[in-house]
Design goal:
With about 160 residues, the chain is mainly alpha-helical. The chain has helices spanning about 1-10, 10-20, 25-40, 50-65, 70-90, 95-115, 115-135, 145-155. Helix 2 crosses helix 3 and helix 5 (about 70-90) packs antiparallel against helix 6. It is globular and about 40 Å long.
Length: about 160
C-alpha cells in the first residue's frame, strides 16, 4: 500500500524521500522549489508568468515536506529578491504583486526575530532588499510602522 501511494502521489514521494534519505532529499527538494520560484519570475525561456501562487505553493510544499525552517526562510527571501529584481528589470507591476512581496518580507523578518541565528545568516540580503527598493514606488517604506521598526532593529543600522 505504501509503495502504491509512493508511485501515484508526488507529495508522498517527497515526504518519504525526506524521511528515508534525509539531507540529500532535502537538498534536492530545496533546489526543485528554488527553480520553481525562480521560473515564475525569470524562466530560462520566455518571460516570467508571475504566477505568485505557484511560487508560494512551491515554498509551502517544501516547508510541509521537510520542516526545514532555515531553507524555507531562504526560499521566502529568494522569492522577494526575485520580485525586486523583476520590478527593477521590467518596471512597475501592480498592487497585488507588491503586497505579496511585502507580506513575504515581513514573514522573513518575523522568523528572523524568532530565530536569532537567522539574523546573521540573512542580514545582508535583507538590507539589500531595502536598498534595492528605495526610490521605487512601493519601496519597503510602504510597510506599516511596526514592520519598519522591526526592520530597523533587526536589519538596518538606520532606517527612515
Amino acid at each position: 500500500m505504501v509503495a502504491d501511494l509512493y508511485k501515484i502521489n508526488k507529495d508522498v514521494q517527497s515526504y518519504l524521500s525526506v524521511q528515508f534519505l534525509g539531507e540529500q532529499a532535502v537538498t534536492e527538494l530545496f533546489n526543485e522549489a528554488k527553480i520553481k520560484v525562480g521560473n515564475e519570475f525569470f524562466p530560462a525561456k520566455g518571460h516570467g508568468k508571475l504566477r505568485l501562487s505557484e511560487a508560494k505553493e512551491a515554498i509551502s510544499n517544501f516547508k510541509k515536506t521537510t520542516n526545514n525552517l532555515l531553507l524555507t526562510t531562504e526560499l521566502m527571501l529568494y522569492y522577494v529578491e526575485q520580485g525586486v529584481e523583476f520590478t527593477n528589470t521590467y518596471g512597475d507591476i501592480d498592487e497585488r504583486f507588491y503586497t505579496s512581496m511585502e507580506t513575504m518580507y515581513e514573514k522573513v523578518i518575523t522568523i528572523c526575530n524568532e530565530e536569532e541565528e537567522f539574523i546573521q545568516i540573512f542580514k545582508e540580503r535583507l538590507r539589500e532588499i531595502v536598498t534595492d527598493t528605495d526610490g521605487i514606488g512601493w519601496g519597503l517604506l510602504c510597510l506599516p510602522l511596526s514592520s519598519k521598526q522591526i526592520i530597523k532593529s533587526v536589519v538596518l543600522d538606520s532606517f527612515i
